[in-house]
Amino acid sequence: MLSFSCGHCGQLVFFENSVCLNCSTALGFVPQRRELVALEGEAAGALHRCANADLAACNWLVTRPGALCRSCELTRTRPNDFDSAGLAAFVKAERAKRRAIMQLLDLGLPGVGPDQPAFDLLSSDHEPVATGHADGVITIDLAETDDARREQRRAEFGEPYRTMLGHLRHELGHYFQPLIVAGDDGWTECRRLFGDEREDYERALARHYSCGAPADWPQRHVSAYATMHPWEDWAETFAHYLHIRDTLQTAAEYGVTVQGPRAVRRDRSLKATPRPEAGDRGFDEVLDNWLPLTYALNAVNRSMGRDDLYPFTLAEPVIEKLRFVHRCAQAAAVG
Questions:
Q1: Whole-prediction pTM value?
Q2: Do the beta carbons of residue 171 and residue 235 sit within 8 Å?
Q3: Same-domain check for residues 60 and 75
Q4: Torsion of CA 305, 307, 310, 311, to 10 degrees
Q5: Is residue 177 part of a domain?
């Protein structure tokens, strides 16, 4: 994520801010410019709050009064106006979705338009909801916004990480695979790394939930769920790639560098100086900054008595898959 400051007083503000807590100036995010602007002067007359400003606590701006912003216009189904619990969950889901859409715009990935991808935000409190993707429509279970329920599911499935943003990035991985894997050569390489996506999905699903992941999955996959089917391996890897790019961008924006602790021998480098433009270069630079940064972040979390912020280990086959995703995303980027 980029860093932002109030256009009126210069105070540090965050992506989600709709007002500066220092000077009370109204703020809003302009997706076309990827900027958080102060709603004063010329901007106050030219820009308007998204129509979902109250309903979804949306702080994005539009140029036409009463219009939906680039993120909110992608939601085609939401809880009804009389479902107070559903609407509270909807606010949380939309907050995570704005962050996901912001990153897609920042990366310049194709296929992000006025009506694509589409989102159905439904709650399993009322009916069975299967989080997933089909034909450009991403379905999200709003029950996953509840921290206690999501943590229970994380523990049941033995997952090290489970967030609403993670769900969105995973399903976006399904959406983007046919858009950024290009040509016969691209698909041949994709199948070499991830497996043949033409494998029967229902049979693979039944096998996964009856037998579980192979014991050696960490040597070849980023998660246990990635072993279920080549589609899921791609989606999990794509989501992980977005995690890495977003976190590195945030570190670069805030000037976070890792110099290496005293315990590291001089012949063993543990340095990271993330740069905003590093992602435009090869994946080696991304990885060289990512691994030292995760060591430092995990150490900080442990100092607070928390579990590791980054509870993953990247085996060489996983790195090769991430490298392929990076190459596909860079080749497909527009603008």
A1: 0.91
A2: yes
A3: no
A4: 150
A5: no
